[in-house]
Amino acid sequence: MTAESLSKERLRLWLRMLRVTRQVESELRERLRTEHDSTLPRFDVMAALYAAEEGLKMNELSKRLRVSNGNVTGIIDRLVEDGAVERIAIEGDRRATRVCLTSAGRESFRAMAVEHERWINALFEGVTEEDAHHIGELLHRLPASLDDTH
């Protein structure tokens, strides 16, 4: 294989990955909207908070999700209004707060997460366990960040 043909094949791979990712993401967004009156960013925020039982500072949450503090703040505001998240003052730091899921928020996320897994399983119905493992292993060869490519 020449360097040019390898380059073209990698480009085709990227375009396939992008197409599949966009299709799956679109389907998940629609299902979260219609079945849980939620959004994918809201789901992602709740997932991060669910994994961090003690809660996270806003900057930790933003870093974990790789989005700006501004993006997270609006979602957190709505989750607080809905009773799914609470803000907790951090002793000794008047400017910082920790956010965590309430028990109602944890319950709500668990229900969405079960559905989310079921949806993914159905969307990838044609992929065997062995195929999924192999594809995952191949994707681990890709750089985790742009810094790894320089």
TrEMBL record:
Residues 10-144 form the HTH marR-type domain. The keyword Membrane does not apply. It comes from Vreelandella titanicae. Keywords: DNA-binding, Transcription, Transcription regulation. This is HTH-type transcriptional regulator. One of its GO terms (biological process) is response to stress. One of its GO terms (molecular function) is DNA binding. Coiled coil: none annotated. It comes from the Bacteria. SMART domains: HTH_MARR. Pfam families: MarR. InterPro entries: HTH_MarR-typ (IPR000835), MarR/SlyA-like (IPR039422), Tscrpt_reg_MarR-type_CS (IPR023187), WH-like_DNA-bd_sf (IPR036388), WH_DNA-bd_sf (IPR036390).
